[in-house]
Amino acid sequence: MKSLTINASQRESVGKKATKALRNAGQVPCVIYGGDTIVHFAAPEIAFKNLVYTPDVHTVVIALDNGTKINAILQDIQFHPVTDKILHIDFIEIFDDKPITVELPFKTVGNSRGVRNGGVLRFNLRRIKVKGFAAKLPDVIEGDITNLKIGNKLYVTDVASDDYTILHPDNTVICMVKTSRTAVADDDEDEDETEGAAEGAEAPAAEA
């Protein structure tokens, strides 16, 4: 997974008054859970631009002003209901020997046969929840849809990997090719029907 570094200042005062003062100064109050102690810190809102406003998932190095660096991943974020400004961010500290649970974006690869024949690709999942070690997790999970015909589905089991465990039931559909008014029969299906008709036809009667 990609990693970002955020330069931040550790904060001792965590009350409402101190938090309000931070926000008024353009800072975002944050907290890191999962380690031996809970760490409170703050950083300028612009520092989170490439972390928050992107479909990608990143690990984060929180570089505190006291020289401490903490590896973490974004857990939760709160926005102002009117202005959409970032109000607060929760992080979870990550370790090399402990797996993490994240939702990775899904991306299709290839050009579906069903779509070429007029079908429509519909998504049930845009992100896939997985568990694994941060160092082995990909930036995005890719699924090949080249051979999907109209009515075919791509399941989470089709994108399984030894690098992570998928936290969805095996029968969970990621995407499928649905028919449409402009859809036409698949060439292979036409050939199968033709071959089946030829095999089932009666042989001509022998002349007397």
TrEMBL record:
What Gene3D superfamilies does this protein map onto? Ribosomal protein L25, beta domain, Ribosomal Protein L25, Chain P
Q: Where is the Large ribosomal subunit protein bL25 beta domain?
A: 100-180
**Which InterPro entries does the record match to this protein?**
Rbsml_bL25/Gln-tRNA_synth_N (IPR020056), Ribosomal_bL25/Gln-tRNA_synth (IPR011035), Ribosomal_bL25_b-dom (IPR020057), Ribosomal_bL25_C (IPR037121), Ribosomal_bL25_long (IPR001021), Ribosomal_L25_dom (IPR029751), Ribosomal_uL5_bac-type (IPR020930)
Instruction: List the residue ranges of the region (Disordered).
Output: 184-208
Whether Repeat counts among this entry's keywords is: no
The annotated regions of Low complexity compositional bias extend over 197-208
Q: Which domain of life is it from?
A: Bacteria
Record domain Large ribosomal subunit protein bL25 L25: where: 6-91
| UniProt keyword Transmembrane helix present | no
Query: What CDD domains does the record tag this protein with?
Result: Ribosomal_L25_TL5_CTC (cd00495)
An example GO BP is: translation
* Gene Ontology cellular-component terms listed: cytosolic large ribosomal subunit
For this chain, one GO molecular function annotation is: 5S rRNA binding
Query: Which of UniProt's keywords are assigned here?
Result: Ribonucleoprotein, Ribosomal protein, RNA-binding, rRNA-binding
Q: State the Pfam families in the record.
A: Ribosomal_L25p, Ribosomal_TL5_C
Q: Where is the composition biased (Acidic residues)?
A: 185-196
The entry's family comment says: Belongs to the bacterial ribosomal protein bL25 family. CTC subfamily.
Task: Describe, as the record does, how this protein assembles with itself and its partners.
Answer: Part of the 50S ribosomal subunit; part of the 5S rRNA/L5/L18/L25 subcomplex. Contacts the 5S rRNA. Binds to the 5S rRNA independently of L5 and L18.
Q: What's this protein's function?
A: This is one of the proteins that binds to the 5S RNA in the ribosome where it forms part of the central protuberance.
Q: What is this protein called?
A: Large ribosomal subunit protein bL25
**Organism encoding this protein:** Aquimarina atlantica
Phylogenetic placement of the source organism: Bacteria, Pseudomonadati, Bacteroidota, Flavobacteriia, Flavobacteriales
